[in-house]
Design brief:
- It is a multi-pass membrane protein.
- One of its GO terms (molecular function) is transmembrane transporter activity.
- InterPro entries: MFS, MFS_trans_sf.
- The chain contains eleven helices and no strands.
- It has about 200 residues and is mostly helical.
- The longest helix is centred in the middle third of the chain and has 34 residues.
- Helices cover about 75% and strands about 0% of the residues.
- About 35% of the residues are buried.
- The protein has one domain: MFS general substrate transporter like domains (Growth Hormone, Chain: A, Up-down Bundle), CATH 1.20.1250.20.
Length: about 200
Amino acid sequence: WPRLATSSLLHGITAFLPSIGASAVLADYFDEQAYQFNGVLASATALFAFALQPAIGVLSDVHGRKPLIAVCLASSALPNVALLCGSVWGWAVLCAVSGASGASTSLILAAISECTEEAHRAGAMGITLALTFGIGNLIGISVGSLLYQRLGALSFAAPLASAALNLCWLALCTPETAKRRATAAGCAALSPWRAFSLLAPSES
């Protein structure tokens, strides 16, 4: 599990690296409307996450964790390509769609639960979350702000490099933990509403 936790840490760094620079770009582009735009973008990102993350989880049961984690890691870095090209609207669209990339943390936690003993599972998950959202936040924002101050838009290449490193680490150093199922997932299983059916009391 430490190798999976390392991948999650790198994902956290990748996610937080462009945050300060992107905020500065939005402030310059939208001026006083930047806050409203951020709110709309956050809502759109959450909507895509709600629609796509359950399907990603189901597909990972069928095809394995690693391929879907790789897709999420790659999609989380794509918005930075638009910022490198100076396209704020392109960044916004890619950022909203990449809301599904948040499933990578859930998939990594699922993989950790499958490769650790029950006695150590909670601790492994806690450490992974602390690395991702604590250390990843600290390193990503600190380094990202310094890079943007010195390099400007070129600093958005850093998350791309971090994501590429993470994909190499995932491919070469992390295990596949899920036993792939032979049957493909049906459309009903991919629906985000299916999760709510689990809350309904079962008939005895």
